Known about the structure:
This protein is of the alpha+beta class. Helix content is 21%, strand content 34%. The protein is globular, with a radius of gyration of 27 Å. Strand 23 and strand 24 form a beta hairpin. Strands 8-7-4-5-6-9-17-15-14 form a nine-stranded mixed β-sheet, sandwiched between helices. The protein contains eleven helices and 34 strands. Helix 7 (296-309) runs antiparallel to helix 8 (319-326).
Amino acid sequence: MTWVGPDPSSIEQMGSKIESKKLMEAAGVPVPGNLTPETATAADLPLLVKASAGGGGRGMRIVRSLDALAGEIEKASSEAESAFGDGTVFVEPYVESGRHIEVQVLGTVGGTFVLGERDCSVQRRHQKVIEEAPAPALPAATRTALHDAARAAAEAIDYRGAGTVEFLYDTAKDRFFFPEMNTRLRVEHPVTEAVHGVDPVALQLAVAEGRSLADLEVGAPHGHAIEVRLYAEDPAHDYQPQSGRITRFSVPGVVSEFEGPSAYGIRLDSGVGAGDEIGTFYDAMIAKVVVHAPTREQALRQLAGALAKAQLHGPVTNRDLLVNLLRDPVLIDAQMHTTWLDGADSATLAAPPGGSGTVALSGFAAAIALAERARAARPVQQRIPAGFRNVVAQPQLTRFQHGDEELDVRWFGGRSFTSAELEGVTVLEAGPEVVRLDADGVQRTFTVHTDADRVDVESSLGHVALRRTPRFVDPADRVVAGSLLAPMPGSVIAVRAALGDVVAEGQPILVMEAMKMQHTIAAPYAGTLTELPAAAGQQVEAGAVLAVVTPHETDEGATP
């Protein structure tokens, strides 16, 4: 039996973010100061509370007020205990607008290889969204210093095999700090594989066989690689994880899966496909989509194009967000930083890439396709045009749900279809699956897919997911005003209020856990907690009523 990977002592030395920093400081690697609630001052703000055994943003909190520090430490410790079985946390200065850069190392008997660096600065909730190699807009001297620091970190613990040394780069002051080392391969390693033409897993086996630095062949870096993480989540609603069945999943231009392509192109690493279910017991990542191209500009364009043309139906995903990010001037000009998405309008970034008219045109095309499908399904009089009326009194109405909003599509049928609302739009072709429209001189083809009440529309404007709204709603399906619904399937881990309590707007009522993240359910307005069917430890389905807040009456006697 041969042990593959670093010696257990190396893993243990880097396993604690607190102790590893002391070790790195002794090795000459720059580290941030380690603070405590007693030593932290206002001059140190903002602060970062982080789980010692954590990762992926779990057990992590940003603190901007010393008064809030104790409470945030308690929350981070609780989340870390739940996720990792270790509630130890530490506090350090938080670098605003910094970049996350990590260096891939390979420790061997003869020394340590440095396989370049990756930029992982585009993050939401401290979880990476986009990674690329090499890191763009990095001064040559800084790049060299990062590589030297990573090599020193690995050699300080006599590291063997593939590992990742992380750094926080302060762009304003051109300096960097060591926060932690991951004693393993990371999710981002495909971009390193592409740029350096290596297989890190094979290299790990070679190191385990005892081969030295001189025996291994590592190619010179070439081209640029970018990886995105395709998640089942809703960016417009604070990146809430989503679950459900994937009904369609295809990405154009894929040349390889789970291995580096022999030429430039798209690589897809995914464990799910059409018909598979996204559950609640694991994290919500659907796939990693990787592109390798001669230049960074080509890589950005090619990956954005492939994602825009991909067909992904079922749960809400971050696909449109990724397309918009890859085309955003901030990313194109390499001005991204770890807090960029925190201050961005996620609803705008997650909107269809085709622009504001995309939903209206797609909804009109969907209404036509559904009308043609209903006509073809008639047992009699199939030759009578859809929507035909002897005397036209008013337009036909097809109602959809698009996200949180209702979409009413009004149209006229008969010998030809016309929109009652969209000007300059002509129907060139109408079928149960394909509709072709001319909008202000631009012709576009809309492909309409249906699955029960779901309607997915694909076009050059992007994907639009709709749900058909039933004409009549079962009264049993209605919920009373003030109902707090479970945003996703998961478990209730804490109840912060009691039945009959008077609560304030925004006051936490319950805490749910789903897909390894905690989600606070707050009161929508001030009122009284009149129903509380949920209890700690209870498993709930998406849409389940967790509590009901009855609003206070106003001075005029009416509820707000």
